Amino acid sequence: MSDSGRFAAFVVSGAMLLSAVSCGKKVSEADVAHTTETTAAVTETVTETVSAETSPATSASTTVTTVVTTAPQPPENLVLSGKESVGVYEEITISDFITDKNVELAEPEKLLDVAEIGEHEIAVKYRSGGGEFEKKLSYKVVDTTKPVLLNAGWSPVHIRGKAFDLNNYVGFADNFDKNPVLTYTGTVDPNVNGDYPLKATVTDSSGNSVSWDVTITVADYIPSAPDTNTRVPFSDFMAKNSGENRCFGIDVSTWQGNVDFNAVKEAGAEFVFIRIGYYYDHVVMDDYFKANLKNAKDAGLKVGLYFYTTDNTEEGAREHARWITEQLGGTSLELPIAFDWEEFGNFQQYGMSIHDLNQIYLAFADEIEKQGYKSMLYSSKNFLNNFWSESTKAANPVWLAHFVDETDYTGDYWIWQGSCFGRIPGIAGDVDMNVMYNKEA
């Protein structure tokens, strides 16, 4: 190769060639900028001496420094593989999804899309050799979770002469399927009194099923059970559950009638949750809400609210959250506004999945917080364990309902409703009694 040809083959460093001559032309800084690679890369420096003839009588040598730039390349021996399948609505990160790798994950905490059953693909980003790359991995979203029975262990009474439908006496739900199917074996003659044993089965759209035994009693009337519940004085409840950084309170609605909140406070209560209203097919304000709110605040009690609802859409929950804050008219609250959904005995009639109700609560909480208030989830131990997801429970404080002497619920909660047969000065009948622990709401 001639000297001029060798020179043209190199990318020349601008700092050293301002005075160099090639084919009679001075190399400018612009020429150098045009020919220099600027990408972040692996760089190799090569130095070579080039002899340049300037005239028959003279010769000179020029030292040329060449910068060779090479872009990072993915590893030839890449190992990056993931699970073949994951559960629908499973909260799974890329880090948990990957089963084998020899590179660093760039987004280890990113969640997989698991909202729909079927084949999916994800571009997994990783780092290697100073660069960032991605590899597409396929996975299948499946539903392998059985439906949940919500009210087993009892024997329903069916009134003789009425049409029989087992859906009226059992409650069930599925994590994904909005409309799982109930079937049963055995017969019930609704016109003849007697006990009718059945084997009931609920099956979801993925073929998962759960079965149980239930006995239907056909009778002329439903016998009333005697009230054998022991009434617990508020002072005894406080003494039994006393501890450092705890305080005690009640929750009230129209069922308590006129409440003397000054007497309630003198009895040792420090807070009260007041029902603002409820929703079945339309919103109804609690008859005593306005009086309870004013009188409780005047007595110096810390106040929170709860709203009993059967919402089955996110927009409905948001609408009702806005209704609640509109009724408050800017009134401040020391405690959260609780979402109270309890219609599990016949849950299937609402046409939603377990996942749907979790999302409905989160929509309610989001809307409440947009209006400047705090939110809370109210639920029993059974449904906290079997219905509400871990992420839902972690999103906001939990108000646990568990009517026992000492709860064995192992999840996190801020308030425990330990009795629904309490008695306190200032209220004529029964009242729920609560313990608040020293946890931030």
Low-pLDDT segments, ≥5 res: 2-47
Report the structural category: alpha/beta
Distance between the termini: 79 Å
Radius of gyration: 36 Å
Describe the fold and architecture.
The chain has helices at 3-8, 29-35, 94-97, 234-240, 261-266, 289-298, 314-328, 354-370, 381-386, 390-395, and strands at residues 21-22, 25-26, 42-53, 59-70, 80-82, 85-87, 98-101, 104-105, 118-128, 131-142, 148-149, 157-159, 172-173, 181-185, 194-203, 209-219, 232-233, 247-252, 271-279, 283-285, 302-309, 337-340, 375-380, 398-401, 415-423, 431-436. α7 (314-328) packs parallel to α8. The strands form 7 sheets. Strands 18-19-21-22-23-24-25-26 form an 8-stranded mixed β-barrel. The chain is an alpha/beta fold and 441 residues long. It is globular and about 105 Å long. Residues 2-47 have low confidence and may be disordered. The protein starts with a helix and ends in a 5-residue tail after the last strand. The chain has 10 helices and 26 strands. It is 19% helix and 35% strand.
